[in-house]
Design goal:
- The structure holds two protein chains of two kinds.
- By secondary structure, chain A is an alpha+beta fold.
- Helices cover 47% and strands 21% of the residues of chain A.
- In chain A, the strands form four sheets. In chain A, strands 3-2-1-5-4 form a five-stranded mixed beta sheet, sandwiched between helices.
- The longest helix of chain A has 57 residues, at 2-58.
- Chain B has one domain (3-86).
- Chain B has a two-stranded antiparallel ribbon.
- Classes of the chains: A alpha+beta, B mainly alpha.
- The A-B interface holds A 115, 118-119, 122-123, 151-156, 158, 161, 163, 166, 175, 177, 179, 182-183, 186, 189-190, 193, 197 and B 18, 21-24, 26-27, 30, 66-71, 73-75.
């Protein structure tokens, strides 16, 4: 019985013991699992925190140094290291940075640096570069201890197939860093590489778009960094400054800028005062520019405005200035043109109101005639302005009626014979008799002929000649007024038919109102014709216009080629 | 030992020794030795390969891709060629069966 009890007791003890051991093992396993989970969680949390910080710090910048700084600053929370060192690119130069956490000697740091540079050379397949120590932070070096790292590993950061940095982590203690800890840092570096690659690609695309936009600007634009180095210049700026090189250097730019304008000083002022400097009128070569020097700020810094360079915009205002001058001159001329008849009218009417003595009927008639003549002159001037205004507004109309161009030219030329004779200018008229009668606006075409002859006489010196020719062409008549006057400089010829352009006759002292040729062009074009100009300085000018033959009635010596075939009469504009 | 294994052994040794210079010997050997069938000495020499060479190389590349994918792309190009040459043939894609064009006139 005692034996049975003993056996049962032993059996129970064994069973309970086994169960207890099993439970104990299970508990130990659970605790181990818990610790492992906790560690994994901790590493995951570290990974997320560091990635967030890296992203916050780099923003839209590709500065690898910022990434290195974040990792150096945060790594202590992940693993126990003695020295962390990194080689990276700053402004296209390889740099090195080291943080010493536990005392090591100089040889230790030299070994780490050599390993980093050897790693760089191995990845990039180049000779190992030589660079100085760089920035060393942390505890002081102790030359008595620790000449070699007990454990070390290196983490490369590669962006778009380029090694932009390598981080080295080492510990004095052999096997002082676990595989899991190393793997976490590799994951962070890998994600950073991906993020930087994506960012660089986006920035490349955006930069491409920006460069295309800058390149297509009509205004000249160039940008300089804070050190005065040229970073961007568009084609318009190169054209304005006369720089023929594709990729000009800062020196090329500086030598192209005019000495009369102190660019360096203005740029420095824009940087120092952080405000736009506007120059209303700067002459560069033969052009006039409005210049804006604008400081460019670093958008990644939101707390303060950090200037990273300046942009210089050259806005060509040559044409605006020229138009403004034309308007000013026009006003002066018009005031003068209207003041003369008004003065004459006032003087004449005052003479009628309060004559100095008794006036004969003939004298009174003469004075009234003068008033009427001056009033007509004023009306003509006003009509000219009104026509110009209508042309500009697109409201100008012509009244085409069957008319005789030969007769019209002869009559107008006749009016100018006396003044031509007074000026000793030979006025010749050569009209082809085969020109038929056709539909055109005789009043406005008469104005055109008047204007051209008047201009030619104005700009032809004594002894010269003005020749008016009218010839038939296919389906049209071409009228030319050629003079032996001063001629028009090539650079001014394109302005001739624009509003307010006044010609100053070389040596003649004559000026025009500036509206005449503008209206000539408007009248001819309203008829469906064209105006052309041939001029050579010192040789003379020929202005020709054509009028389409519409509704032709055969002349006495009608040329068959003149009558347009199947030509429908045009509607009156 | 056939030529492919011998060549693979040489290329793997070169790759491991290169990674030892770049990443450091400790992590490189840890990762390389985790691959079944690959025996490596402390200086990074592959002493033997046991098993399917293609699979071992693929596994090797995967291990190092986990550390740095761009680094693998930049420094292990010769291994890619062997991995792709020894990879099992892919199932041929059946030729596209052109569907009959529906009768346009059919209502």
């Amino acid at each position: 019985m005692l034996l049975i009890i003993s056996i049962i007791a032993i059996g129970a003890t064994i069973i309970f013991g086994t169960v207890a051991i099993l439970y104990s093992l299970r508990e130990e396993k659970a605790v181990k699992q818990l610790v492992e989970n906790e560690l994994a969680q901790k590493q995951r949390l570290f990974e997320i925190t560091m990635m967030k910080e890296i992203q916050d710090r780099i923003g839209y910048s590709l500065e690898i140094e910022k990434v290195v700084d974040v990792i150096i600053g945060s790594l202590e929370a992940l693993l126990q290291y003695s020295v962390i060192s990194a080689v990276f690119f700053r402004k296209e130069q390889l740099q090195i940075k080291t943080h010493v956490k536990e005392p090591v000697n100089r040889q230790y740091l030299d070994t780490i640096r050599q390993k980093l540079l050897q790693a760089y050379a191995t990845i990039e397949n180049v000779a190992a570069p030589t660079i100085p120590d760089g920035n060393i932070s942390g505890v002081a070096l102790d030359d008595l201890h620790h000449t070699v790292p007990g454990t070390w590993f290196q983490v490369p950061i590669i962006v778009n197939d380029r090694t932009v940095g390598i981080i080295s982590v080492s510990a004095i203690k052999p096997h002082g860093i676990t595989e899991a800890e190393m793997t976490t840092l590799y994951k962070i570096a890998s994600q950073t590489s991906d993020a930087l690659t994506r960012l660089e690609n986006i920035l490349t695309v955006e930069k491409g778009k920006l460069m295309a936009m800058i390149g297509s600007l009509a205004d000249g634009l160039f940008m300089l960094d804070v050190n005065g180095q040229l970073t961007v210049i568009n084609n318009a700026a190169k054209d304005f400054l006369g720089i023929p090189i594709d990729n000009p250097s800062t020196i090329d730019l500086l030598s192209a800028l005019p000495n009369t304008y102190d660019f360096s000083n203005k740029i420095q002022r824009a940087i120092n005062h952080k405000r736009v400097i506007e120059e209303k009128e700067v002459t560069i070569g033969e052009k006039i520019f409005q210049i804006f020097i604008t400081p460019v700020f670093d958008v990644s810094i939101t707390t303060e405005k950090k200037v990273i360079g300046v942009s210089v915009l050259l806005h060509d205002i040559t044409l605006e200035k020229s138009v403004a001058k034309m308007k000013e001159d026009f006003t002066n001329v018009m005031v003068h043109e209207l003041r003369s008849p008004l003065t004459a009218i006032r003087a004449s009417s005052e003479m009628l109101i309060a004559p100095p003595g008794p006036l004969t009927e003939e004298e009174i008639k003469k004075i009234i005639g003068m008033i009427a003549q001056q009033a007509r002159k004023m009306l003509d001037e006003v009509a000219l302005i009104l026509d110009a205004a209508k042309l500009e507004a697109g409201l100008f109309t012509i009244q085409k009626i069957p008319s005789d161009l030969k007769q019209l030219i002869n009559e107008r030329a006749q009016i100018f014979q006396a003044p031509a004779h007074e000026k000793f200018v030979n006025l010749i008229v050569d009209i082809d008799p085969s020109i038929p009668k056709f539909n055109f606006d005789p009043i406005h075409v008469g104005q055109v002929v008047n204007n051209l002859i008047s201009n030619s006489l104005k700009f032809t010196s004594s002894g010269g000649s003005v020749k008016v020719t009218a010839k038939p062409a296919i389906g049209s008549v071409v009228v030319s007024v050629a003079d032996t006057g001063a001629g028009i400089p090539k650079e001014k010829q394109h302005l001739l038919f624009t509003k307010f352009t006044q010609l100053s006759g070389a040596g003649t002292g004559s000026v025009g109102t500036g509206l005449g040729l503008y209206i000539v062009k408007g009248v001819v074009e309203a008829h469906g014709g064209t105006v052309s100009l041939e001029s050579e300085e010192g040789r003379g000018t020929t202005i020709s216009f054509s009028l389409p033959i519409e509704g032709a009635k055969p002349a006495v010596e009608q040329h068959p080629s003149l009558i347009p075939q199947n030509k429908q009469p045009k509607m009156v504009n | 030992m056939n030529a492919t294994v011998q060549e693979s052994q040489k290329l793997l040794t070169e790759a491991i020794q290169k990674q030892m210079l770049i990443l450091g010997p400790e992590i490189t050997l840890l990762k390389a030795r985790s691959i079944t069938g690959l025996n490596i000495s402390d200086d990074g020499t592959v002493t033997s390969i046991v098993g399917n060479v293609g699979e071992i190389i693929t596994h090797f590349l995967e291990q190092f891709r986990e550390l740095s994918s761009p680094l693998v792309k930049k420094t292990m190009q010769p291994l890619f060629n062997i991995a792709s040459a020894t990879a099992p043939a892919t199932i041929p894609v059946p030729a596209t069966i052109s569907q009959p064009i529906p009768n346009q006139n059919k209502v």
